């Protein structure tokens, strides 16, 4: 697992963060058609409804994630990405747990997300399912697509994550 983890609000314009976000966008564009790439660019991450976090171990950036407030009771996980060299070490789960804790502290009752359906996104879907997320109908501006799936977690009716 992870030792000496620091998760903090971060400016996505920080050079190492920007580089990881560029890899995130490249990954999304490589594995999804353009109309199904919902990853936020730098300008999107600087919007006032977004809280953007980095996860570092010993100062090294291993992952990022954001929480978008859709309204006062509903939030969305965005820009979840783990550096390739850190995958399988619990970075994603640690970030999800942190973002859910932030949502709870804000009084959010439901957290949703969108991710891809191609096989390369299976680890992400498994991570979210283990955290208690279940597939749901598209929310917000998302529509039905064979390349996209929406998931949600009711914080007021949570089952213990595995």
Short recap of the structure:
The protein contains 4 helices and 7 strands.
Written account of the structure:
- The protein has 162 residues and is an alpha+beta fold.
- The chain has a single domain (5-157), classed as Aminopeptidase (3-Layer(aba) Sandwich).
- It has four helices and seven strands.
- The chain has a seven-stranded mixed sheet, with helices on both faces.
- The radius of gyration is 15 Å and the shape is globular.
- The model has no long low-confidence stretch (mean pLDDT 90).
Q: Low-confidence stretches at least 5 residues in length (pLDDT < 50)?
A: none
Total domain modules: 1
Supply the number of helical segments. Answer: 4
| Overall outline | globular
Q: Give the biggest sheet.
A: 7 strands, mixed
Strand residue content: 25-35%
How big is the Rg?
A: 15 Å
Record field, number of beta strands: 7
CATH-defined fold name: Aminopeptidase
The CATH class turns out to be Alpha Beta
CATH architecture: 3-Layer(aba) Sandwich
- On the 0-100 scale, what is the average pLDDT? 90
For the largest sheet, list the strands in their spatial order.
1-2-3-4-5-7-6
Order of SSEs, N→C? EHHEEEHEHEE
Q: Kindly name the structural category.
A: alpha+beta
Terminal Cα span: 15 Å
Q: Kindly report the name of the CATH homologous superfamily.
A: Gcn5-related N-acetyltransferase (GNAT)
Q: Residue share in helices?
A: 25-40%
What is the secondary structure topology, with strand pairs?
Elements: E1 5-9, H1 15-31, H2 42-45, E2 50-57, E3 60-69, E4 74-82, H3 91-105, E5 110-116, H4 122-130, E6 134-136, E7 148-154
Parallel strand pairs: 4-5
Antiparallel strand pairs: 1-2, 2-3, 3-4, 5-7, 6-7
């Amino acid at each position: 697992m992870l030792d000496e983890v620091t998760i903090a609000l971060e400016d996505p314009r920080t050079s190492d963060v920007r580089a990881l976000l560029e890899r995130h966008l490249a990954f999304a564009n490589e594995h999804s058609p353009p109309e199904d790439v919902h990853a936020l660019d730098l300008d999107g991450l600087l919007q006032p409804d977004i809280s953007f976090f980095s996860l570092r171990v010993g100062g090294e950036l291993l992952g990022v994630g954001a929480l978008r407030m859709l309204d006062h009771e509903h939030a969305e996980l965005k820009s979840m990405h783990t550096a390739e060299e850190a995958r399988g070490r619990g970075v994603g789960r640690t970030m999800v747990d942190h973002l859910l804790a932030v949502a709870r502290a804000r009084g959010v009752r439901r957290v949703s997300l969108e991710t891809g359906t191609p096989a390369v996104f299976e680890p992400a879907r498994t991570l979210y399912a283990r955290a208690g997320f279940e597939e749901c109908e598209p929310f917000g501006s998302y529509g039905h697509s064979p390349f996209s799936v929406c998931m949600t977690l009711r914080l007021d009716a949570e089952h213990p994550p595995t």
